[in-house]
Amino acid sequence: MGITTKDLAQICGVSRTTVHRALHDGAGRIHPDTREMILRVAKENDYRPDLLARGLVKGQTFNIGVVVLDVKSRYFAELLSIIGAEAGRQGYFVNITLHDNDKETEKSQLTRLADYHVDGIIVSSVNEGDEYKNFLRGLDIPIVSVDNKIADGIPFVGIDQRRAMTDATAKVIEKKYEKLIFVCPPMEDTGKRNIYVHRERLKGFKETVEKYSGIEISYLLDWNYREHVESVLGESRKTAFVCSADEFALEVMKRMKKSGKRAGRDYGIIGFDNIDILDYVTPRLTTISNSVAEVAETAVALLFELIMRKQEGKNWEEPAPCKILPYRMVEGETI
What we know:
The protein is an alpha/beta fold.
C-alpha cells in the first residue's frame, strides 16, 4: 500500500490540512519552505494521490468517455490521439469505446459510461434525431458531438461540410472538367444510421453543379462503387471524381492504377478530410482539410467548460453551443 497524506503529515510534522494545501497548488496559507519540504518528502516516498477519494469529495471521476466509429479510420485515429493529449493536460483519463456503426451498441456504450460516472462524453454518433437527443439528456452528463450532428440542442463541433464541398466542386469545375462523378458510398445507408456529414457534402455538390450547364454528372452512391469506377469514367470527356472522403478517393486511385491510368493525367480526383497518410501517396491527392486537430481541441475545451458549469451548479444544458470551425483547401497534384 502506498504512502498516504496521513503518513506524509506524520513524517513532516505538520497537519493533514497543510499537506493537502501543499499538494494542491499551494492553496491556502502555507509557507513556501514548508510546501517545498512536503513536496520533496512526497517525491522521495513515491506518493501517489488517491484520485478516487479526491473525486468523491469533488464529485468528479477525472475520466471522460469518447465514442467513435473505429480506430481503423485515419481520421478517427488522429481525433482520438488529440483528444487524449488534450484531456491528459487537464489531468483526465480517456475511456475509448467503438460503436462500429451499430446504433444499439452506441447506446449501450453511452449508458455504461454514464454508469461509471464519467464527467463528460465526446461522441461521433451513428444515431440522430430528437428522440435520441432526449435519451442523451436523460444520461445527465455533459456531452459534445463531433462530425455527425445529432440534433439541435446537443452541443456540436465541426466544419461547414456543405460549404466545404461547394468549394471543392467549384475547384474542379474551374479546371474545365466536362464530367463529374460524385463518389459517396455511405449514402446507401440512408435511414439506417446517421450520415449527416455525407448528406451535407452531397448537398454541397448538387448545389454547385446546378449552377453550371454543359457538365455531365454521374453518381456512385453505394458500397459497390469500386466495381463501377472504370465504366463511369469513359473516354470521351475530361472527367474528374469528387469524393466525399479521402479513403474513397484512394480506393478509386488504386483501382484506376490497375488500368494504367494516373490521377492528374488521365482523370482528375479530389478527396475530403486530409488524412495524414496522404503525405505518403503519389500523386498527392487534392483535398479539403476538415481541421481534425482544431475539432478535437475545441471539443475537449467545450466539454470541460460544460463539466465546470455542472460542477458549479449552473445550467449546462442551455444554450447548447454549436461551434463551426474553418476548413481549408489542400492543393495536390490530382486536379
